[in-house]
Design a protein that fits this description.
Layout lengths: L1 H6 L4 H12 L2 H24 L18 H14 L3 E5 L5 H12 L5 E4 L6 H7 L14 E4 L10 H7 L4 E7 L12 H14 L4 E5 L18 E5 L13 E5 L1 H11 L15 H30 L4 E3 L11 E4 L3 H13 L21 E5 L11 E5 L5 E5 L4 H17 L10
Helix pairs in contact: 3-4, 3-10, 5-9, 10-12, 11-12
Bound molecules: pyridoxal-5'-phosphate.
The site of pyridoxal-5'-phosphate has 12 residues, from helix 5.
Amino acid sequence: MKQMYAALGVSEEVFEYGERVLKELEGRFRAVDAVAEYNQAKVIAAMQKNRVGAACFAATTGYGYDDVGRDNLERVYADTFHTEAALVRPQITCGTHALTVALSANLLPGDELLSPVGRPYDTLEEVIGIRESKCSLKEYGVTYRQADLKPDGTFDYDAIRAAVNEKTKLATIQRSKGYATRPTFSVAQIGELISFLKSIKPDIICMVDNCYGEFVETVEPSDVGADMVVGSLIKNPGGGLAPIGGYICGKKEFVDRCAYRLSAPGLGQEVGANLGLMPAFYQGFFLAPTVVSGALKGAIFAANLYERLGFRVVPNGSEPRHDIIQAVELGSREGMIAFCKGIQSAAPVDSFADPMPWAMPGYEDEVIMAAGAFVQGSSIELSADGPIRPPYAVYFQGGLTWYHAKLGILLSLQKMVEAGLARLPENK
Ligand SMILES: *Cc1c(COP(=O)(O)O)cnc(C)c1O
């Protein structure tokens, strides 16, 4: 094994340090496997209930009327998330698009959007109009208010109560920390927040940005009162196989509006050919619980590996997990580059590429991204990225298999050690 890792560029010292860290994680890994087993059963049950068969895998083109595979996939998603309806489409191009559809379909001029969890994900700033942008919700007369989290990362219920008013129509709750170093919320915490919001204003629509959270726990935000859950198929629920797509699951009245916004008023869910993507969507969803478990093991391993070397990691090495993202604060631009080079050099695809900081559409700061993915930009595949700004945190996620995640993490440390940016503990 050591020789194999050496051939891939991992020194004996780094490998053995990794093995020592891993020995202590056996209990954690067993717990991750148990969640995956539960979620695997949940997905299989939804597929069986909806009689998934070969006819579901046929390609459609053109308008896509009476698309059996597409319609049934949406029932499978709805049953897995325990919602009345679902919109799962290749025409939803990414997570930001899915969130934009959900927001712009359900907010009308004069309505107000509330984020009770502080600043939203970078790309949402332009969607909302926090940063001026063409076609933002702000341009269409939708106002925005946010209640920041308390310094310890918990909900500021007083600030939330003060922010809710007669115009407040929809609350957007981001489950994952995204590019911030606040904690990711558990589904139970999200449930408490939703109950609180509904106690102040019963008809407020609660939408959860579920990106990176799917299948990390045995329950989803839709099990605790969310009216809509939204995410990307090139993250968790695509299982690494979906080459594009997004989903919105939730109450029928809200999902219907999303479908009208996505296609056209009057057409809604009836149109949208599947373009031959159904096999990848079904099979990816089937694999997603296991893929997520591999990614989670990678995140837990990375946290423990780096924490012991003195780096701040969020979540820390022992905290429970509510998404697949691991932030590692590397303290410098050079650290971010070395880490990302390691992840890149572990990839099955584009391992020869050299990640560099770059300006990216939708992001305010320069961003560095390491990804050697079969699906371009897929972040359920092993990837690391982060905006070049203090505290110079790299957000590490994914890995279609645990072994690939392990290799990537070991190589990231290898590059850090070689650059003199990390020092291994004495081998005792
Ligand atoms: C990735 C992500 C998004 C945006 O998804 P894209 O597919 O990159 O557009 C939104 N919110 C969160 C929390 C995310 O992690």
